[in-house]
Amino acid sequence: MRLLATILFFLSTAFAADPSKKPEPSSLADTAREVKRLIDVYSILESRGADPINSEQAFYQGAIPGLLRRLDPHSVFFDPGQFEQLKQMQNSTTKGFGSVVSVLPGRVIVLQTLPGTPSAKSGLSPGDEILAVNNIRLDRLNLDQLVGLLSESKNAPAKLDVRRSGNVRLLQFTLNPEELQEPSVDRAFVLKPGIGYVRVSSFEEKTGSQVHDAIEKLGGAKLAGLVLDLRNNPGGLVTAAVDVASLFLKPGQTVLTIRGRNVAEKEDKVPASAEPYRFPVTILVNAKTASSSEIVTGALQDHDRATVLGEPSFGKGLVQSVFPLSQSTGVALTTALYYMPSGRSIQKPLKSEDFALSSTAAHPNQLADFHTDKGRKVPGGGGIVPDILVYPSETSRLRNVLDASGSFLTFATEYTRQNKVTEQFEVGPALLDRFQAWLFERQIQPGVAEWSRERDYIQNRIKAEIFNQALGVAKGDEVEFQRDPVIQKAVEILTQPS
Question: What is the pTM of this model?
Answer without folding.
Answer: 0.76
